């Protein structure tokens, strides 16, 4: 098909490679595109930069959520379901591609896409990076250039048709989701489904942390959100204790206590985790802090210390027998 400029979009050419079905989808904020894409250089070899099929997963974009490569939303909005189209985009539209590609590649590699990234706009992060970690993307970052995108649109879903990930929610949606997730987590705990409950608490914490990132630390808005985070983290840690994930508990309680060093419940859970991995001195210190901070927990602390003492004595006896057995074997 003959190349044509997209209506009201400067610096873009579209060529339909395979026609789609039906009318153009009706879009609204929160609609989700699912598609495969291939990115090529506009050179003689049409050098392939990225291919979502090789990465093994299709791409998803949520309408209205300020995806860094804004032109993609425009391109996809011009497509019908099942359509395959090739778009030539001038450099004015592709300057952010290196950062977008970096994130997608990291996800495909099982790495954190935001590792090393500061909480700033995309352009700010562009100047923060000395290197993307990929030579071909570094070249694109140094010399923005026209790119070719070949896209195949699979589906477009309304906001009500799928469960939105946390990052795709508005501020109001995140705040509304937190008590629901908290309640669902509590219900799962009662059923002793600790792994599922932990996932609910974790999702609620992520909602709140995302909101906190937009507040100034230790000011009223941040503190209000932090007051909601703390009980969720403690509930999450209790689930991890039940699941035997003691080092996970140590990590999260220690992080919590760095901010709130008077939280008796956090010390109590950390003490139990220390006890479980035979850190006797650390466990005793934390249990003593609990009794000092909250005298109402003194009875629970006394019980835990008694159990810790019994476990440690039993361990010492078993260790002594084991060492004696080894010594006798070596003598024999």
From TrEMBL:
One Pfam family this sequence matches: PPIase_AIP
Gene Ontology cellular component list: cytoplasm
Source taxon at top rank: Eukaryota
A GO molecular-function descriptor: peptidyl-prolyl cis-trans isomerase activity
Extent of the TPR repeats: 264-297
Keywords, comma-separated and alphabetical: Cytoplasm, Repeat, TPR repeat
UniProt keyword Oxidoreductase, yes or no: no
Name of the protein described by the UniProt record: AIPL1 protein
Organism listed in the record: Motacilla alba
Source lineage: Eukaryota, Metazoa, Chordata, Craniata, Vertebrata
UniProt gene name: Aipl1
